[in-house]
Design goal:
Number of helices of chain A: 5
CATH superfamily of chain B: Glutaredoxin
Order of helices and strands of chain B: HEEEHEHEHEEH
CATH architecture of chain B: 3-Layer(aba) Sandwich
CATH topology of chain B: Glutaredoxin
CATH topology of the largest domain in chain A: Helicase, Ruva Protein, domain 3
Number of domains of chain B: 1
Radius of gyration of chain A: 27 Å
Strand content of chain A: under 5%
Number of domains of chain A: 2
CATH superfamily of the largest domain in chain A: Cytochrome C biogenesis protein
Distance between the termini of chain B: 67 Å
CATH architecture of the largest domain in chain A: Orthogonal Bundle
CATH class of chain B: Alpha Beta
Structural class of chain A: mainly alpha
Strand order of the largest sheet of chain B: 5-4-3-6-7
Oligomer: heterodimer
Largest sheet of chain A: none
Shape of chain A: elongated
Largest sheet of chain B: 5 strands, mixed
Strand content of chain B: 15-25%
Radius of gyration of chain B: 21 Å
Helix content of chain B: 40-55%
Largest interface: A-B, 15 and 18 residues
Number of strands of chain B: 7
Chain lengths: 143, 179
Amino acid sequence: MKRALCALLLSMLATAGHAVDNTPALPTDALQARYRALTHELRCMQCQNESLADSNVSLAADLRLQVRELLIAGKSDAEVRDYMVMRYGEFILFRPRMNWRNSWLWSAPVILLIAGAAVAVRIIRSRLRLLASDDSSLDGFDP
Amino acid sequence: MNRFLWPLIGFALLVVVLIVGLRHAPDKEIIASPLIGKPAPTLDVPDLIDSNRRVTGTAQAGRWYLLNVWGTWCVECRAEHAALLAIRDEGRVPIIGLNWKDDDAAAIAWLSQLGNPYQAIGADRDGRVAIDWGVYGAPESFLVNPQGVVVEKQTGVMTAEIWKQRFLPHMDAQRGVAP
């Protein structure tokens, strides 16, 4: 009984894993791997928070087929992304590319790091100056 | 005083950035089409009603047309049908239909039941043309100018107000500058 139940649960897992993407497999493992990666990083435009790979709406199925055909036709990953962006806009990419509109966002970490370092250097320098001008020992100093 | 001034200014700037960000958060329902301002993608599909003919964008070259993507499976398409009939009756621009991944017989029945606002209807049975036009949810309507450039797009139901406010001005402007 227990074993049968276990088998039943396992078989349910198996169907869940393969329910969505019924696009035929690509001819080589390398192409299949690229197909998997691309369909996971392209957005399903109808459901928006799902990737093409995870969505079972009909447009996602059409676009998966399109990705498959582009890859078989020898297109590079960048060309497939460009193909989608030309039609659906940057929004279709889950990982936004750098452009002039979001360049400030990409550079923000560097700018913040430099600003933080500048503040730190200033504070350290003023403390050093304070230390140099002060003859008393640190004994009894209570922060 | 000075010790607290700069952090305060920094905090105030952050607040401004966040308020602007919240106010201008893009409406997730509507995504601007990258097609606007670009030449219309190729349109060459079999005619829904007469399979010996084809519906093409080149046949419309030199004049305005409205491409309307629809399907009988699309609930909102029924909601915009009256507005499309009104646009047809207005007579400013021919409407070309693109019947997206639909059953031909159901589409023809729909038109005889609700009226046919289209000058011609192309059947995009496998959805290839819709992909080229970046369609992601019917109904969608594209206004194409005489030079073959997409100038406006409505994602979702077309209404008389949207037509008047966003679409007609394009045609009025072009007529204004024409000799």
